[in-house]
Specification:
With about 220 residues, the protein is α/β, with parallel strands linked by helices. The protein is built from nine helices and ten strands. Helix 8 links the parallel strand 9 and strand 10 (about 210). Helix 7 (about 160-170) packs parallel to helix 8 (about 190-205). The longest helix has 16 residues, at about 190-205. It binds dicarbonimidic diamide. The site of dicarbonimidic diamide (C5J) has 8 residues, from helix 7. Dicarbonimidic diamide binds near residues 24, 132, 158 and 161.
Length: about 220
């Protein structure tokens, strides 16, 4: 076990049973013309974390940790996208509509791809998830358990939506979760800080958080 300095108290990292989960580092959320942009968000806020997420992925590769990349995505016929999700709000473009990078949040479209700097390598797990949480309608739990994984490091976007939902789902399934603070971002600064506070409050009620540098120092 390796002690990682973290909030609200040190995280006991088990390097033999840990996986890195990189949530939705997709063009649809991070680049102009994607789903996040269509909802009226400033996507440049998310672009700022790309080097840190890439460095975290490098760290995981160096240590041979299991890496899972998720994509929020739907089948081309949208049979896995409930109308309650597709029709919510008044954005000019909705899930499945054609934008400059193809149909929004649809599998196989250019905009649905993971950005080049964080692209999965052969052998890494890629999960297409129709929901915000990574356990809903996916086989990720079975894949993690097949690898003997008991701890998850979280990164990606957006902190208070897909990252937080996935971390809560993981916590309920018995995984110990550490969120890498500077490898996650929100379109709203106040939502990121609120999510970090909620997740780590009450003695790590959902999990821990730490900056990448502290994880790097602990495993050096
Ligand atoms: C959102 C996500 N925000 N990946 N998706 O709709 O957080």
């Amino acid at each position: 076990m390796v002690d990682v300095a973290a909030t609200p108290f040190p995280f006991k990292l088990d390097p033999q049973h840990v996986a890195l989960i990189v949530i939705d580092m997709q063009r649809d959320f991070i680049e102009p013309g994607g789903f996040g942009d269509a909802l009226g968000n400033d996507v440049s806020r998310l672009q700022a974390i790309i080097p840190t997420v890439a460095a975290l992925i490098d760290l995981a590769r160096t240590h041979g940790w299991v890496i899972v990349h998720t994509r929020e995505s739907h089948l081309p016929d949208l049979s896995d996208c409930p109308p309650a999700k597709r029709l919510r709000g008044d954005a000019p473009l909705r899930i499945g509509d054609a934008g400059p990078m193809g149909r929004l949040l649809v599998q196989g479209e250019p905009g649905n791809a993971i950005i080049e700097d964080c692209a999965p390598k052969p052998g890494e797990i890629v999960i297409d998830k129709p929901g915000k949480g990574m356990f809903y309608a996916t086989n990720v739990d079975a894949q993690l358990r097949a690898h003997g994984i008991t701890q998850l490091l979280f990164a990606g976007v957006t902190t208070e939506v897909c990252v937080q939902t996935s971390m809560r789902e993981a916590n309920d399934r018995g995984y110990e979760c550490l969120l890498i603070e500077d490898a996650t971002e929100s379109y709203f600064a106040q939502f990121k800080s609120a999510a970090l506070a909620m997740l780590t409050a009450q003695g790590a009620i959902v999990g821990w958080s730490t900056p990448l540098a502290k994880l790097q120092a602990a495993v050096a």
